[in-house]
Fold this sequence. Notes:
- This protein is about 80% helix and about 0% strand.
- With about 110 residues, the chain is mainly alpha-helical.
- The protein has one domain (about 5-110).
- The model has no long low-confidence stretch (mean pLDDT about 85).
Amino acid sequence: MTGQVRKLLLWSPRVLGILAAFFLATFALGAVGEGLSAFLLHAAPAVLVSLVVALSWRWEWVGGSVFIALAVLFGAPSLARGDFWNLAVSGPLLAAGVLFLWSWRHRKELHAHG
């Protein structure tokens, strides 16, 4: 595995998790005029995803497990109703989870040579 590919595979789940947190944070912006409690309620998913990214920076298996669980929690109820809009949220979370698990599985190879 070349150094560039190694860096890409190491950083892609982290960047994807950060982007997912920013995407979820945009929903909180819509609740700014509704009061503090509404804003905090809408910001909670973004804060949760940010915390998971922070933990996953060191322990990839945490990110893999939690991101996949969040993808199922966010996506399954909507998919059961036939609503596919929620794939915009659950899809990136699932991808980040799979990439974090892959990164954890290949940790020694990815962290080799700096």
